[in-house]
Design brief:
Methyltransferase, Cobalt-precorrin-4 Transmethylase, Domain 2, 2 domains, 5-stranded parallel beta sheet, about 240 residues, Cobalt-precorrin-4 Transmethylase, domain 1, 5-stranded mixed beta sheet, single chain
């Protein structure tokens, strides 16, 4: 058995009870080194196997192979379907027919961070990763244009890194073609972890703001507003 488990965005308080049960049932827990560090102390009696960035295929194949003979949990931050390992586990599963796979959902950073900012995701939204390691840059730009033109609230994952320091500014430039600079935006860094910080600001201010890979960015739609310091996108209930 292989459980592909979403452990939430940060602290154990954001982990679902189903995720905790799956980790308790597992004989082996496999994951990216930084994510294993988040849970190791709470499951200290378990056996762990970790790999670094860009070793996702190796990590998943090991979990599938071990799942043929024992119960394994492959952990992902947030939800394992959203930029996680659930899809890859199914893609590779034909080579490991004796391993059953069960996906255990988790609370993704979009919603955990949204709760910190207020309620920016009360209506339709688009989630876009700015990382072009696996997705062509032109496709990302097209998606940004479409989401902005469609007036979706936009959540940006992987907004910047050492080698992509200007990617958020480029994304904001695209969105500014469709939305005014006073559009309400926000970001949360280290969601649910030590050093968590957040800010509500305008799209014009966001364009010149430095962020990192551990930051989730929120860009409001035409109806998103600031209410008592919180970022809120109305659903329309007040008009019924």
């Amino acid at each position: 058995m292989l459980y592909v488990v979403g452990i939430g965005a940060g602290s154990l308080g954001g982990m679902t009870s189903d995720a905790a049960k799956a980790l308790s049932a597992a004989e082996l827990i496999v994951g990216y080194t930084k994510y294993i560090e988040l849970i190791r102390e709470s499951f200290a009696e378990k056996e762990f196997y970790t790999t670094g960035m860009k070793q996702e295929r190796e990590r998943v194949e090991y979990a599938l192979k071990e799942g043929e003979k024992r119960t394994v949990a492959l952990i992902c931050s947030g939800d394992p379907q959203l930029y996680g390992m659930a899809g890859l586990a199914f893609e590779l599963s034909s080579a490991y027919p004796d391993t059953d796979i069960e996906v255990i959902p988790g609370v993704t950073a979009a919603f955990s961070g949204g709760a910190v900012l207020g309620s920016p995701l009360t209506n339709d939204l688009a989630v876009i990763s700015l990382s072009d390691l696996l997705t062509p840059a032109e496709r990302i730009r097209r998606r940004l244009h479409c989401a902005a033109e469609g007036d979706f609230v936009i959540v940006l994952y992987n907004p910047s890194s050492k080698n992509r320091s200007d990617y958020l500014a480029r994304a904001c430039d695209i969105i500014l073609e469709h939305r005014p600079p006073h559009t309400v935006c926000g970001y949360v860094r280290n969601i649910g972890r030590e050093g968590q910080e957040s800010r509500v600001l305008t799209l014009g201010e966001l364009r010149d703001t430095a962020v990192d890979m551990f930051t989730t960015v929120y860009i409001g739609n035409s109806e998103t507003k600031l209410i008592n310091g919180k970022m809120v996108t109305p659903r329309g209930y007040g008009n019924v």
